[in-house]
Amino acid sequence: MGTLRDQTLQQASPALDAAATAAAFANALHSGQPHDAAAFFAPQGRLLTADGTEVGGHPAISSVLSQLTMSEQRLRIRSGRTIVTGGVALATQFWTRSPREPSTGGFESSTTAKLVLGHTERWQILIASPWG
Predict the structure, then answer these.
(1) Which of 21, 66, 88, 130 fits a 20 to 30 Å CA distance from 35?
(2) Minimal CA–CA distance to 76: which of 61, 57, 90, 93?
(3) What's the whole-model pTM score?
(4) Rounded to whole angstroms, what are the CA distances from 61 to 11, 30, 45, 100, 117?
(5) pLDDT tens per residue across all 132 residues of the chain
């Protein structure tokens, strides 16, 4: 059957591969699959945390992403623009975090996430900055 990542990439048209990769990353997070989301990162990929810490490697990236998907907050991601030149792309996404249960208090926060993708055999995330 393959992972969500494999299924999405097989269906993507060549002209939209970078945008499709960014969207599939968001879909994996929406589906509560941080391991699948981390698989969109290149082996040398990096994720910047909310406090600016640089995290690398699929296990570490998956751990940070699981904190997002398993938290008491609901994550909504809306795709923005993807700009491609040669083998590099910049994708923007609009991330909104809000309490799963409004009665528990808390607040809503929004950020413009940035993904830098690179293409060798396929598009992969090189750098992700979900908190802007």
Answers:
(1) 88
(2) 93
(3) 0.81
(4) 25, 16, 9, 23, 16
(5) 456 655 555 544 434 689 999 999 999 988 889 999 999 999 999 999 989 999 999 999 999 999 887 776 788 889 999 999 989 999 999 988 887 676 666 677 888 999 999 998 899 999 999 987
